[in-house]
């Protein structure tokens, strides 16, 4: 397919988790809202733009975010059932415009609308405007859209369009569009690669494209170096396609020279873990199992794995586990190829506060060992953020609880800001609500 008659759309919901909360709990509509675990190891999974204005970001430790949060801010546990419900509604609507969608997370997808084949930039702009308005009117949420001749540039464009924006990159200008941007905007350039590039004076994508083949390959590795440099020029003919359920994310590499000491093997495996982790994060998944593959000088291959009681996307934990699985080459012979995979993937449903992470070493060379799931921690009584239904007052959410009392804010998407009422914890008229109730 010729690059110049193709239009790829990247649609990304703005501050999705926090926006779902603000949509269904109108009292919060203009307030700083954080979604995530409130416990000592909790992290910010979502932050409204009002919270971001105070320097709070996704993945920040909640303890740090809490210090930055102004007094009118709120911290809520995630309601993934609600986010999935709204995500389905959004992408069912988008599918009316573009039948083939490549979903990459709950709130992000690529599309290649057939109606845009051969369209002008102006026509693409009209299309994007109409789609954004439709989503806002029907679902009440804001989507930003990037459009370009390929996936990479479309994704970068939607990031730049945020918040509440649309950015169409004219065909033929991809290279100029990318040139001034920092290297890390490119998929596949993580902190390690960014650091290596910076060390040779490369900070922008324009500088990356100007590198010689030899420099690109020696800095980024042969395969990755070539791919990334091509993407940096804006050439990207990867198709948009329905993606099968993701089974694992991985990265592997063959070394120019066999590694014969544990220190250098460890360093390489950490780099591989960085790449695999980036894929995990891009896919918005958590992993339970870490797999390390080592091919020795004699071509024998050893695969070792370790499975945790509950899944995680924490880099340090995953990388440390990968390092623990390594075999010292000075004992077992040189290593010519190494790979790191994260498998047992799931969508992060659990509040980090209630996940237990117990590494289970697998000393055999069998691929995977499954263990019993983590014990379920049941909450007693009401927690802030819980959905509630009251016999008389209808649907609402727990704003605060303690000292035998619970304060409920009665409101739904269509009710406008609601009234707060306080009850005794055991009030029989109070029942647990369904996440869909608040969409009424
Ligand atoms: Mg988003």
From TrEMBL:
Q: Which Pfam families match?
A: IMS, IMS_C
Keyword flag Signal: no
Q: Chief localization class?
A: cytoplasm
Q: Of which family is this protein a member?
A: Belongs to the DNA polymerase type-Y family.
Role, per record: Poorly processive, error-prone DNA polymerase involved in untargeted mutagenesis. Copies undamaged DNA at stalled replication forks, which arise in vivo from mismatched or misaligned primer ends. These misaligned primers can be extended by PolIV. Exhibits no 3'-5' exonuclease (proofreading) activity. May be involved in translesional synthesis, in conjunction with the beta clamp from PolIII.
- PANTHER family in the cross-refs: DNA POLYMERASE KAPPA (PTHR11076:SF33), DNA REPAIR POLYMERASE UMUC / TRANSFERASE FAMILY MEMBER (PTHR11076)
Q: What is this protein called?
A: DNA polymerase IV
Gene symbol here is: dinB
């Amino acid at each position: 397919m010729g690059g110049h008659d193709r239009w790829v759309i990247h649609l990304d919901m703005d501050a999705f988790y926090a926006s779902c909360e603000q949509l269904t709990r109108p009292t919060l509509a203009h307030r700083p809202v954080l979604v995530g675990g409130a416990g000592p190891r909790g992290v910010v999974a979502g932050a409204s733009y009002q919270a971001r204005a105070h320097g709070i970001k996704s993945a920040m430790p909640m303890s740090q975010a809490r210090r930055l949060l102004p007094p009118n801010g709120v911290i809520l546990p995630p309601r993934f059932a609600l986010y999935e419900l709204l995500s389905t509604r959004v992408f069912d609507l988008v599918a009316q415009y573009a039948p083939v969608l490549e979903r990459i997370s709950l709130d992000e997808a690529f599309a290649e609308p057939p109606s845009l084949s051969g369209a002008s930039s102006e026509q693409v702009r009209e299309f994007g405007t109409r789609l954004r308005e439709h989503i806002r009117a029907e679902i009440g949420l804001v989507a930003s859209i990037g459009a370009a001749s390929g996936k990479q540039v479309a994704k970068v464009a939607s990031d730049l369009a945020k918040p509440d924006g649309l950015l169409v990159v004219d065909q033929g200008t991809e290279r100029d569009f990318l040139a001034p941007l920092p290297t890390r905007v490119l998929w596949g350039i993580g902190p390690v690669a960014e650091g290596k590039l910076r060390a040779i004076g490369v900070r922008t994508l324009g500088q990356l494209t100007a590198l010689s083949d030899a420099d690109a390959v020696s800095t980024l590795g042969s395969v990755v170096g070539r791919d990334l440099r091509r993407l940096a020029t804006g050439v990207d003919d990867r198709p948009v396609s329905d993606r099968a359920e993701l089974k694992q994310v991985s990265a592997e590499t063959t070394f120019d020279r066999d590694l014969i000491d544990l220190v250098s093997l460890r360093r390489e495996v950490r780099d591989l873990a960085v790449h695999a982790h980036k894929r995990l994060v891009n896919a918005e998944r958590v992993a339970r199992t870490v797999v390390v593959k080592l091919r020795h000088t004699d071509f024998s291959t050893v695969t070792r794995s370790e499975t945790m009681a509950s899944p995680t996307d924490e880099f340090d934990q995953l990388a440390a586990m990968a390092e623990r699985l390594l075999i010292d080459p000075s004992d077992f012979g040189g290593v010519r190829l190494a790979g790191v995979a994260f498998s047992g993937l799931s969508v992060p449903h659990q509040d980090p506060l209630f996940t237990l992470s117990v590494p289970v070493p697998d000393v055999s060379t069998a691929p995977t060992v499954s263990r019993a799931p983590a014990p379920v921690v049941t909450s007693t009584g009401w927690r802030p953020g819980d959905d509630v239904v009251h016999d008389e007052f209808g649907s609402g959410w727990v704003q605060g609880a303690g000292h035998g009392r619970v304060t409920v804010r009665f409101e739904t998407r269509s009710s406008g800001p609601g009234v707060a009422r306080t009850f005794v914890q055991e009030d029989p008229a109070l029942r647990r609500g369904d996440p869909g109730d608040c969409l009424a």
